[in-house]
Structures are given as structure tokens and as C-alpha cells.
Amino acid sequence: MAPSLDDESSLFNFVVRDGNGVKGIVDSGISKVPRPYIQPPAEQINKKNASKCEIPPIDLSKLDGPEHDEVANQIVRAAETLGFFQVVNHGVPIQLLDTLKQTAHNFFGLPAERKAVYRKEVSPSPLVKYGTSFVPEKEKALEWKDYISMAYTNENEALQQWPMECRDVALPYLKTSHEMVKKLLDALMANLGVELDDSNIDAFIGKKMVNMNFYPTCPNPELTVGVGRHSDMGTLTILLQDGIGGLYVKVPEDIDMEKKGE
Predict the structure, then answer these.
(1) 156-185 pLDDT tens trace
(2) What fold does the segment set 8-43+57-214 form as a domain?
(3) Fewer Cβ atoms within 10 Å of its own Cβ: the N or the C terminal residue of the chain?
(4) Contact 162, 127 (CB under 8 A)
């Protein structure tokens, strides 16, 4: 049953409690963004104030050759300024990444009752959380996204507790990308005079998790956001985008780069 867009309580129950998520609203055939999802003007993204990043991707394969120092400096420079950079030739098979994206679509395409099992209030595992927005019960304006978050403790627990629709692809991705993460941390920590080895790498990486975010097609994308402005708390976030893209990175005002504040 489709929610009443004018009744915020009905909408909240449909999206959050019943596990339909934003995808459920879109599937119901809406033609406009419901009021709870309309962001304040200051939080809406004005594309006129944005420009395409022209910084070329960093070729991680060159860390293993004579250009190691140059590439390591590129990583450090990007981390110290934008805090974000693209990498290529990273060693994670493209086929695995494509399968991972398809796995995400498959999960979010499940019936609401299958996904609602993992809502944070009722999830059978503390490692798995399905939800929408960030803290929907407290936010003044909701985010246009659904997500599944899977924390990693060890392989056995992941195999037992992660959703069966995700684990057989998400787990190999986490393990395969570990070498890429180690290369990035090696470069960043070496700049601080710290040498990583197998005895301390896990301490620097810390908690590991795989998040899958889904942003359903939006009738008024200029009025809302998939994820609001934030800084991640972890050591590193490895972000896999699809062909649609949509990531915005704010250029700080106090660094030596053009187009500050964009």
C-alpha cells in the first residue's frame, strides 16, 4: 500500500518501520519529492557552484616501480588538500567490482520484508544494519538513500551473519581490496615517518566494513541530497561509484588550490 505523502507519520512508517526505504516511495509512482526530503536551501547542491575535477587519477601500479616516490607524493598531496582522489590500476578485478554493483542492485530490489529483517532496531546481527537516511527519527530533512551496512570481525561471522544476498561478493571484495588499502596507507604513513608491516597494519586500518548505498531515481533531485555534507570518521573510505557518479567534494578555503570553497 502506497504511503500518503501528506501524512508524515504514515510516510515514516512506510519508509523506515516497514523497510520500504526511499525505493519504495519511488516504486509507488510519486511525481514530486515528499516534503520531509526537501533540504534547506543551504544544503541543496547548486551545480552552478561546482566544476569538474581535472586532477588525473593516480596509477597505483606505479608504486611498484621506479616512479614510486612520485606517485606516493601524489597520494599525499591529494590527501592533504582535497582529501579525496581517484585511483586506477588498483589490483581489484573489474569483474568483481561490476558483480558487487549488481549485487547491491539485487539486494535493494528485494521485497521490503526481506530487507526490513536487518533494520537496526530488529537486526538479528549487530554486524548488519539496513536503513534509510542517517538518523531518520531525528533529522529535520531526510536523505534520498537506502543502505545496508556490514561490519567485519572475522570471516566466519561474516559468512554466518551478513545477508546471503551480499556476502558471497562483498566478502571477496573486502579481502581483495585489502592490498590496495595497504598500498595507500604505506604511502600516507611513510610521509609521517611511520613504516607499516604485518604486525601493525591492522591497527592502522582498524574497523572494516562494507556499505552499499542506493539512490533511487529522484523526480526533483535539485531539492534533496543522497548524502548530506559530512566527513567520514574512518582511516580510509574506498568508494566505488557507478556510471552515474554524483560525488561532490568541497574545496577548503584555506588551501593553495583554485576554485576555493566550491
Answers:
(1) 999 999 999 999 999 999 999 999 999 999
(2) Jelly Rolls (2.60.120)
(3) N
(4) yes
